[in-house]
Design a protein that fits this description.
Blueprint lengths: L1 H32 L34 H11 E2 L5 E2 L2 H12 L6 H10 L15 H8 L23 H10 L3 H7 L19 H16 L5 H9 L26 H15 L4 H13 L7 H20 L12 H17 L2 H16 L6 H6 L9
Antiparallel strand pairs: 1-2
């Protein structure tokens, strides 16, 4: 009996060991397979713990802060967020996260992108040398340290994607250009009606949008196209409709504008024109024709309208790739032709020749024949911590 009892106890112990072993294995499998959990063990704060939503200055030396384009390129070279949602360069991602976790403002929006897209990673669809963000964190978490070797901690503001809007609003109000540029579009252009026509914005909405665009402008953005439209027109756009078939004319400018503001808006469009913007050239043509923001001068108006013809030919030669979307150009060309016909009936032979002479001068003022490229550029500036 004692022998049988010992055998039974031995069997029971073995069964318990097997069950415990299976439990450990199952636990490990669940830990690694549960896509809803972060493998790098982002801590869950107790319910009574307050999140720290303070916007801190960056602890990175100012001369090492990323420019806007640098932050974007670093993120894109480290993480693929179009198809595979995978880490493609761990070393660059380490550098990127160090900046984001140390409050480098230009890296922060792309860290939200990383948090958003990494959830769609599929191990069955990856290519060679790609790893998931979770695997990256399990392998490289200990390398996320500051310049003194102190481990970095992910700021609370990243713990939920819902905090993104809060961060954007705060940093826009602090005049960080990336965020100010995006916040401007919360105010203008406004909504479309059921026929696709833009509804007028209130002056207060336009002024808020203009305020944020000016912050972006001061930070290197070439946002003159949006800024001039919101200064000039109640809809906050150069077009009246969502199909870009109906153009706002300069004579429809906001009547609340002062003469100084009107001149400033035309100055912006002339700067656009010097970089081969079709709408910029048209606005300067109108300005001289109607004496709005410029002196009334029909000779100069005619010369500028001829410059638009010249720019049109340049665009056609280059396959419509240099100035806006091709769908936005026909109304500009049509309106310019109407202006030209009107001016040709007003000008005498000597005035037309004077316009041709002035046209030769205007052609030399074009700095860049690729307006789209210039419009997307951001001038170099020293980022704020």
């Amino acid at each position: 009996m004692n022998s049988d009892r010992k055998v039974t106890i031995s069997i029971i112990k073995k069964l318990i060991a097997v069950v415990m072993g299976c439990g450990v294995i199952i636990g490990i499998v669940l830990l690694y397979c549960d896509d809803g959990k972060n493998i790098y063990e982002r801590p869950v704060k107790p319910e009574n713990t307050t999140m720290d939503m303070t916007i801190y200055p960056s602890t990175i030396p100012e001369n090492q802060l990323l420019r806007i384009d640098e932050a974007k390129k670093l993120y894109q070279s480290a993480f693929e967020d179009q198809v595979f949602y995978a880490v493609v360069n761990p070393d660059k991602l380490i550098k990127f996260i160090k900046h984001a976790w140390q409050w480098d403002k230009n890296a922060m929006p792309y860290y939200y992108d990383l948090m958003s897209w990494q959830r769609f990673y599929d191990d069955n669809k990856k290519e060679d040398d790609m790893i998931s963000f979770k695997e990256f964190m399990s392998k490289y978490r200990d390398q996320l340290v500051d310049n003194n070797g102190k481990p970095l901690v992910e700021p609370d503001i990243y713990t939920s994607l819902n905090f993104r809007r809060y961060l954007f609003d705060k940093l826009a109000d602090l005049k960080y250009p990336y965020f100010a540029y995006r916040k401007s579009f919360f105010y203008s252009p406004c909504e479309y009606d059921n026929k696709g026509m833009l509804l007028p914005c209130s002056d207060s909405s336009l002024e808020k949008s203009i305020e944020y665009l000016n912050y972006a402008l001061a930070g290197g953005y070439h946002c003159y196209e949006y800024l001039s439209a919101q200064m000039l027109f109640q809809q906050g756009d150069h077009y009246k409709d969502n199909k870009f078939r109906q153009l706002n004319k300069l004579t429809e400018y906001r009547k609340s504008l002062t003469s100084a503001e009107l001149k400033q808006a035309i100055d912006y469009t002339e700067l656009m024109a010097e970089h081969s913007s079709m709408i910029g050239i048209l606005r300067v043509t109108e300005a001289y024709l109607y004496g709005l923001g410029r002196e009334h001068d029909i000779v100069k108006a005619y010369a500028w309208s001829l410059l638009l013809d010249y720019a049109k030919q340049k665009v056609i030669e280059n396959g419509n790739n240099l100035a806006w979307s091709p769908t936005m150009l026909p109304p500009i060309w049509q309106y310019n032709k109407e202006i030209q016909t009107r001016l040709e009936n007003m000008l005498n032979t000597s005035q037309k020749q004077a316009a041709q002479d002035y046209l030769s001068t205007l052609k030399t003022k074009i700095i860049d024949w690729n307006y789209n490229r210039w419009r997307e550029q951001i001038d170099d500036f020293h980022p704020k911590p």
